[in-house]
Amino acid sequence: MSKKGQKVHTKKVFKPYVQEQQTLPLSIDSLIPQNHVVRVVNRAIDRMNLEPLFAKYPGGGRSSFHPVMMTKLLVYAYTDRVFSCRRIAKAARENIMYMWLCGGNKPDFMAINCFRSQRMKEVILDVFAEGFRRTGQWQTNRHRGD
Q: Residue 65: how many CB atoms within 10 A of its CB?
C-alpha cells in the first residue's frame, strides 16, 4: 500500500492504441441506444403521412435523395440544434447518429438547402408540427411556453 503522494510504480502504462485497426461493428444499428432520440425521430417520421411532400416531386430528371430520409435528417438536426445546411451535411458524413439515420447517404449542403427551401417550403410547418406531436415533445414544449 502506498502513502499519499507516493508513486506505486514508475512504469508508464497506457491503454492499447492501434489506429490501423479496421474492426467495426457489423451494423451501425448496434451502436445506437434503443431509447436514443434519433430512434424516436426515425419512428415518428416513419408513421407520418408525407404524401404532400411526395407531391412536390414532378418526376423525371436526375434521381433525388429520398424525401423520407431528408425529412428525418432535418427533423433530427433541428432536434439536435443544428440548423446550418453545411453543419447538417458534415454531421451526415461524420456523426454516427446522422449516418445511421441517413442509411449511408451523404447529402451535401446544397441538396439539404434545396430540399428545405424548395421541396419543404409549403409543407414544412405541417411536417414539423406532426413530427413534434408524434415524438411527444409537442405537449412538453406547449406546457413550457416554448
A: 18
